[in-house]
Every structure is written in structure tokens, then in C-alpha cells.
Design a protein that fits this description.
The complex is a heterodimer. Chain A is mainly β. Chain A has strands at 3-7, 11-12, 18-25, 33-39, 46-52, 57-59, 67-72, 77-82, 91-99, 102-106, 110-114. In chain A, strands 2, 4, 5, 6, 9, 10 and 11 form a 7-stranded mixed β-sheet that branches. Chain A has a 4-stranded antiparallel β-sheet with strand order 1-3-8-7, with no helix packed on it. The radius of gyration of chain A is 13 Å and the shape is globular. Chain B is globular and about 35 Å long. Chain B contains no helices and 11 strands. The chains are: A mainly beta, B mainly beta. Chain A binds chain B through residues 37, 44-47, 49, 58-62, 94, 96, 100-104, 106-109, and chain B through 1, 32, 34, 36, 42-46, 49, 55, 87, 89, 91, 94-101.
Chain lengths: 116, 107
């Protein structure tokens, strides 16, 4: 059973960089695509981007210049960095496995609040 | 970007009801559509992929249909455990986008 666990600071200052990791267990990150999705409080889902284990990435153009997704095969984890954050980036951030563009396994999510 | 519009945004229902949720894409997405169920405080869960295929373990009372721009999620006989918010997602074109969600509530 594949399991994903997000971790990182729950509070980031405006104009700072949001950094999260997603540890994958029960399966290898060296297969499939892996995605990040976020959900502002009481709002809908936003696809942030995805990465293939080879390093190929696709990003949402609305965040393109600020977002970086990477994989660390040695640690079996993926990472998300979002720079120059504002209050609008406050959200629950999820990582998920993407198989044929189906997000079939998700982490439990981690709330990141952008505040001074 | 492809816009996904769900209706209704919320629905007051009763156990045993037949529930229909629609999702409309701003352009033809063939059958490249998934449905997810999200319960409060939990991550979304994949229900249906490729518009009409049930994910493993999903009860048969859930049905997906449609192609092109118009899609439907039907719950044939609502159970209490189905109370949740449902999202559609297109994956025909990047960026993959979600509908705004349909929240089911009990009358």
C-alpha cells in the first residue's frame, strides 16, 4: 500500500519561500508521476504541478515562475518550493501519485499559512 | 486553460435519493475526466477515472458518464457515508484543472 506524508513549516512569512517534502513509502518514487495539489481554506482544489521520476516537470502557468518540484530518489521523496508567497498561497497542500493522470494515492495534506 | 464548471454547488439530499452532479468543460476533453470525493478534513479520494470507470473498491451505486464537454456523476441510492464534496478534474490539457466542487448535505 503506497503511503504519502507531507511535512514542512506550517507558517511562512510573506515574500518568503514555502518548502514542503512528501515522503513516499510502500512504493518507489522511481516510477509514475507525482503531483502537488493545494486547497485554500473552504475552497476548491488547484493543481500545482507534477514531476516524473526522470525529472520532467509540468507546472500550472499561474504559478510557473514561482514553483519548483523536484524528486530525491535516494530518500524516496518529492519536494515543493513556492517562492514569494502571499496570503493567497495559504492552503492545505497535498502530494499525490499520478498514474495515467489519475491521482490515486494522496497524502493527508499539510496546512501552510502565510502570515507575518 | 480549460475551465470546469460543476452544478449544483451544493445539494440538500436524503438517504436513498438518486443524486446527479454535472460537470461541463469549456472545450472538448474527450473522456479525460476524473471524479473525486472529499470528506471534511480528509484528502480527496479517486472515485471514477476516464469519465466512467470506477476505481477499485468504489461501490457500484456510483456511476460516471459523458464525453466531450458534458459529464455526469450519479449516485443511484445515496448512503449516509456518501455525504461529501465531489470534484471533477480534466486531464486533457495542462494545466489539469478541477471543478469548484459540489457539496452534498443531508436534509
Amino acid at each position: 500500500q503506497v503511503q504519502l506524508q507531507e511535512s514542512g513549516p506550517g507558517l511562512v512569512k510573506p515574500s518568503g519561500t514555502l518548502s514542503l517534502t512528501c515522503a513516499v513509502s510502500g512504493g518507489s518514487i522511481s516510477s509514475n508521476w507525482w503531483a502537488w495539489v493545494r486547497q485554500p481554506p473552504h475552497k476548491g482544489l488547484e493543481w500545482i504541478g507534477e514531476i516524473h521520476h526522470t525529472g520532467t516537470t509540468n507546472y500550472n502557468p499561474s504559478l510557473n515562475s514561482r514553483v519548483t518540484i523536484s524528486v530525491d530518489k535516494s530518500k524516496n521523496q518529492l519536494s515543493l518550493k513556492l517562492s514569494f508567497v502571499t496570503a493567497a498561497d495559504t492552503a492545505v497542500y497535498y502530494c499525490a501519485r499520478s498514474v495515467q493522470q489519475q491521482l490515486d494515492y494522496w497524502g493527508q495534506g499539510t496546512l501552510v499559512t502565510v502570515s507575518p | 486553460d480549460i475551465q470546469m464548471t460543476q452544478s449544483p454547488s451544493s445539494l440538500s439530499t436524503s438517504v436513498g435519493d438518486r443524486v446527479t452532479i454535472t460537470c461541463q468543460a469549456s472545450q472538448d476533453i474527450n473522456k479525460y475526466l476524473n471524479w473525486y470525493q472529499q470528506k471534511p478534513g480528509k484528502a480527496p479520494k479517486l472515485l471514477i477515472y476516464d469519465a466512467s470507470n470506477l476505481d477499485t473498491g468504489v461501490p457500484s451505486r456510483f456511476r460516471g458518464s459523458g464525453s466531450g464537454t458534458d459529464f455526469t456523476l450519479t449516485i443511484t441510492s445515496l448512503q449516509s457515508e456518501d455525504i461529501a464534496t465531489y470534484f471533477c478534474q480534466q486531464f486533457d490539457n495542462l494545466p489539469y484543472s478541477f471543478g469548484q466542487g459540489t457539496k452534498l448535505e443531508i436534509k
